[in-house]
Amino acid sequence: MPNLSDPHISTGLDNRLSDFRRNALMMAGLAERSFDRARKGFEGRDEDWCNTVIADDEELDSLEVSLDHEAMAFLVRFHPVAGDLRQVIASMKFGGNLERVADQAVNIARRTRKLITREPVAAAARLLPAFDMAQAMLRDAVAAYSDWDAELARSLKERDRGLDRLVRLAGEELTSLMAEDTPNIPGYLDLVFIGRAVERIGDLAKSIGEDIFFAILAEDLRHTG
User: Fold this and answer.
1) Residues 106-128: what's their mean pLDDT?
2) What CATH number is given to the structural domain containing 138?
3) pLDDT for 157-197, tens place per residue?
4) Rounded to two decimals, what is the model's pTM?
5) With 50 as the cut, is the pLDDT of residue 119 above it?
6) Structural domain of residue 171, as residue ranges?
7) Is 176 within a domain?
């Protein structure tokens, strides 16, 4: 298995790879923070947290563009091959998926702002286990990238199936409750859409894991198992 600590002949290449990974991990920290704040806004019915998530989205968009430009400059200058090339491509895809995580956090925040204007729906608590699972998956996806851990990356695929089941069951429950509590249908619909955004974050964490696994071992996990 490739070891990120193994030095290259070119010190410049090592330094640029290290800088590139450091910038990607900084973006990861911001994406995790956005999701955490979106959850705080949802759980606490707190509009201020929601507004913070929405305001921070532009910064993450800019970081993704910067990361892509940095990757292209690296490819042009160093012409990496094999593991180094896979690492750079995985990092570019990592940044793209992180930007999409932030977009889903914004979707949660916007739906939560609508939810706050309505009567509280007790069933909102049914989504908290899904939030827990998606946050853990995103955290481990970032750790798999940071530690270049193929087994942790691989584990995200099966965990995503568990999150899909959890969100599906919550959605079915919300739909049943909606039929019994028609005055609060708009609130239930907001919850369904929030659940879908949480599920999508799990999908993105799984995609990060697949990209990392391929970058490390040159084996494709997609469409398997």
Assistant:
1) 96
2) 1.20.58.220
3) 999 999 999 999 999 999 999 999 999 999 999 999 999 99
4) 0.90
5) yes
6) 11-217
7) yes
Determine phi and psi for 118, rounding to 5 degrees.
Answer: -105, 175
**Cα–Cα nearest to 157, from 221, 93, 61, 105:** 221
Task: Indicate whether 40 belongs to any domain.
Answer: yes
Domain count, the chain: 1
Task: Indicate the burial class of 3 (C-beta count within 10 angstroms; 0-12, 13-18, 19 or more).
Answer: exposed
Q: Which residue has the tokens 């193994």?
A: 6
Could you tell me if 190 and 111 are in contact, meaning their C-beta atoms sit under 8 angstroms apart? yes
Rounded to whole angstroms, how far apart are CA atoms 59 and 26? 12
Spell out the residues 6+ positions from residue 105 whose beta carbon is closer than 8 angstroms to its own.
31, 34, 35, 37, 38, 53, 57, 197, 201
Q: Which of 43, 50, 45, 48 lies closest to 117 in space, CA to CA?
A: 45
User: What are the tens digits of pLDDT across the range 62-78?
Assistant: 999 998 888 888 888 88
Distance in angstroms (rounded) separating the CA atoms of residues 153 and 172: 30
| DSSP code of residue 184 | G
